[in-house]
Request: fold
Amino acid sequence: MIVSEQKPWEEILGGLDGDNSIFILGCNGCAEASGTGGPVQVKEMKSKLEAAGKKITGTMVIDFLCEKALVKSRLRPKTKDVEAADSILVMTCGIGVQAVSAAVNKVCHPACNTISLGGSRGEWKGKERCLECGDCLLDYTGGICPLTACTKGLINGACGGASNGKCELAPEKDCGWELIYERLKGLNQLDKLSRFIAPKDYSKMMPDVKTMATSLWALEQTS
Ligand code: SF4
Ligand code: SF4
Reply:
């Protein structure tokens, strides 16, 4: 299980600045279990955003947003609603937001921060990875995690060492920042690269005692 918490309301609204119409996507997997992106929270978010003057073109809750093929097939009947939106607000963990961003050619905003369980979780088979940093940056990077896609975990752009699109430290791997650049270019959002992202507070990657206790309790129940 991947645990998430909703970002502060001001941050969610700030991320949607300039977008008048929004499609909201929730997840019936870990986000539903975390109480951050299930049907209840999607309904609440719709009401709050409408009260804030946003037009909601549609909502959907999908079983697992981390499964790109499932996202594509489930969203197909909602294509017009998605196309009518300026962007998608994705209410789930960092892996889910990355998967939706890769599956749908649309600006995706993360509504949640993924928080650490101290390593007591499984690995998803998809290639998207989240370090559970507790302060999701995917809004700035076209839905590609700079902490995992870039070998050095740089958050303010490329190191300059890439060669033919490959990382200087891991030549078998695509340069994460070149992928971010191409994604933002395709979304007409290259201006996001001019924003400075302040150094991260890495203490947020430490699991808090209450979350750890809940996680260990859940593990005990299933073992
Ligand atoms: S920025 Fe990356 S590591 Fe942090 S929550 Fe988002 S996907 Fe996870
Ligand atoms: S070459 Fe690209 S992926 Fe590798 S460390 Fe530099 S910016 Fe990061």
About this structure: Residues 3-139+199-206 form a domain with the Rossmann fold fold (CATH 3.40.50.11860). The first strand starts at residue 3 and ends at 6. The pocket of iron/sulfur cluster (ligand 1) is lined by residues 94, 113-114, 130-133, 136-138, 145, 147 (CB under 6 Å). The mean pLDDT is 93.
